[in-house]
Design brief:
It catalyses: (6R)-NADPHX = (6S)-NADPHX; (6R)-NADHX = (6S)-NADHX. Its cofactor is K(+). Belongs to the NnrE/AIBP family. The protein is an alpha/beta fold and 243 residues long. The protein has one domain: YjeF N-terminal domain (Rossmann fold). The protein has an eight-stranded mixed sheet. It is globular and about 45 Å long. The structure holds ligand LP7C6HRI and potassium ion (K). Ligand LP7C6HRI binds next to helix 2 and helix 3.
Amino acid sequence: MPFKTVTSKLAAQLDRDLMGPEIGFTLEQLMELAGFSVAQAVLKEYPLAASTKTQVLVLAGPGNNGGDGLVCARHLKLFGFHPVVYYPKPNSKTPFFSRLVNQLKFFNIPVLNVDENWTQFLDSDSTVCVVDALFGFSFKPPVREPFGSILQQLHKVQDRLPIVSVDVPTGWDVDEGPVEPNSIIPKVLVSLTVPKPCASKIDSLETQHYVGGRFVPAEFAHKYKFEPFPYENADQVVKLSPN
Ligand SMILES: NC(=O)C1=CN([C@@H]2O[C@H](COP(=O)(O)OP(=O)(O)OC[C@H]3O[C@@H](n4cnc5c(N)ncnc54)[C@H](O)[C@@H]3O)[C@@H](O)[C@H]2O)[C@H](O)CC1
Ligand SMILES: [K+]
């Protein structure tokens, strides 16, 4: 399915618009729907009935992409998976993020800090996939530590352990795509609201492409020059390719 994209600059403006005084969404509302949609994409790609594996490693970054990952982990648990979250640089700008972490503890979901051994979950036979919620549309290469080392680890395992990237594959330039050598190639990309230009660089033979974050009416989509996506029923994601 051909799709329109919005640049990183326009995506940030779209977000500000949704959360501005006229429309009035809160970040919390949008993040809940974004994280929920990523969890749905994971369930669609890796149905629990098809495997005995249930563990999902969620890598959460310092910004809102990381917040989507924290929400996603909670929904994965409700769906029947066993998520483990690695959160090396917790967001301390707003108390909302520590509330998301408290909710994970309420759900008995382990949240590992920077010093804990997260790579054991890359080696574990029970891990279904890794959710890459490290960086989204505000990432500017080159990547700084500890995230560079995390990406190196992901690159090493990506042929045997699928990566599900939230909004943008981490390390990719949002507008240009995989500009760094050894960029990760996700098995699944879940674009949020509308794909960013880097999504047109994915190879549909390697990467399943979904769009999620179902929170804009048709008129708003048209304002940003894209068509609404053909979501079915109550689905929070729609597969764009291959279809
Ligand atoms: N409308 C929507 O679709 C919604 C999308 N959401 C998600 O929010 C992200 C964008 O979030 P933002 O906080 O603006 O940025 P990031 O998470 O991408 O990253 C910011 C974070 O990263 C640090 N950083 C930037 N570059 C580097 C680097 N080279 N090395 C290390 N660290 C870096 C920066 O300092 C910040 O701390 C979007 O993609 C969606 O996933 C929302 O959930 C709301 C709705
Ligand atoms: K990401």
